Amino acid sequence: MDSRQLRYFIAVYEQRNLSRAADQASVAQSALSHHISNLEAEFATPLFERKPRGMEPTAAGERLYEHARIILRAMAAAEREIKEGSSVIAGDISIGMANSGVKAIGVPLMRAVLTKYPNLKLSLTESLSGATLMHLMASEVDLALVYNPPSEKDLVAEPVLEERMFCVGTAELLGKSKKPISFEEVTRLPLIMLRHGLSSRALLDDPVLLKRLETTSAILHLNSISGTTGALLAGLGCAVATKLFVQEQLKAGSLVAREVVEPTLTRTLYLCRLRNRPMTYAMEEMRRLMLSLIAEQVGRGAWEAKLLI
């Protein structure tokens, strides 16, 4: 098995058709078919089911596709690293961020990459924190800003900042006062929360308090940013969130926010990467840039948080 065979395999997998795959790979269809057959012989298992209208991946083919993408990406990164060294930050870099990260530093990050690193191609993926972590674990992103990731031996998680949490909702549900609200009072409110699992753990540092909110107060579980915002504006319930999450609605006066106390609720943001993937020059530079932008936003009050870096 070599890189050429893997590239041919990926072309067939993505096109589901030998003729189209041959065009994409700029190779004769007979040669492409020969390489696929050799791969299947090497693995002693079929990678595709041949059908009248194309090629359908088998379970083995599905698994090989995931590995092949990672292998070719790593090989390309290694080639760039050796050829270019640290003199030019170039190539592809993929970064995943929870919604708060994109709101706070998304535009400054994009502007910095476009102006300072013209040879670097940035891919920025926004999702809920749990989904962002899954993108990282699947090697779909190189670096990720994630809230409260689980302890994983394959994960390097660097604490970046700590945010205080607020109860947000309409004035009809929370009143017009901006005074803090106790945790006990929050448990008596109808809450809109993230679905259980990786997404919900991003809400609070304390899993015991999180469990109590989930079991006593949650009326809806939504893994949707727009859905949660819409439900809040409609007065369907309240949410435990940061001010940054609903900053536009707070400025417009359509929602109010009251800090949760007794106890104070917090969540921690981490900058994560996979342990088995060595840092490239581009990753190192993007890590430095992201931490610098976060510190800048916190320093000028645009991101209400306590820096941990």
Question: If you had to describe this structure to a student in words, what would you say it looks like?
Answer:
With 309 residues, the chain is of the alpha/beta class. It has three domains: 3-83, Arc Repressor Mutant, subunit A; 88-158 and 269-307, D-Maltodextrin-Binding Protein, domain 2, CATH 3.40.190.10; 166-264, D-Maltodextrin-Binding Protein, domain 2 (3-Layer(aba) Sandwich). It contains twelve helices and 14 strands. It has helices at 3-15, 18-25, 29-43, 59-84, 99-116, 129-137, 171-174, 183-187, 207-216, 225-233, 247-252, 281-299, and strands at 48-51, 54-57, 91-97, 120-126, 143-147, 155-164, 166-169, 181-182, 191-193, 218-221, 239-241, 256-261, 266-274, 306-307. The strands form four sheets. Strands 4-3-5-13-6-14 form a six-stranded mixed sheet, sandwiched between helices. α9 (207-216) links the parallel β9 (191-193) and β10 (218-221). α1 packs across α4 (59-84). The longest helix is centred in the first third of the chain and has 26 residues, at 59-84. It is elongated, with a radius of gyration of 24 Å. NodD regulates the expression of the nodABCFE genes which encode other nodulation proteins. NodD is also a negative regulator of its own expression. Binds flavonoids as inducers. GO terms for molecular function: DNA binding; DNA-binding transcription factor activity. Belongs to the LysR transcriptional regulatory family. Residues 1-58 form the HTH lysR-type domain. Keywords: Activator, DNA-binding, Transcription, Transcription regulation.
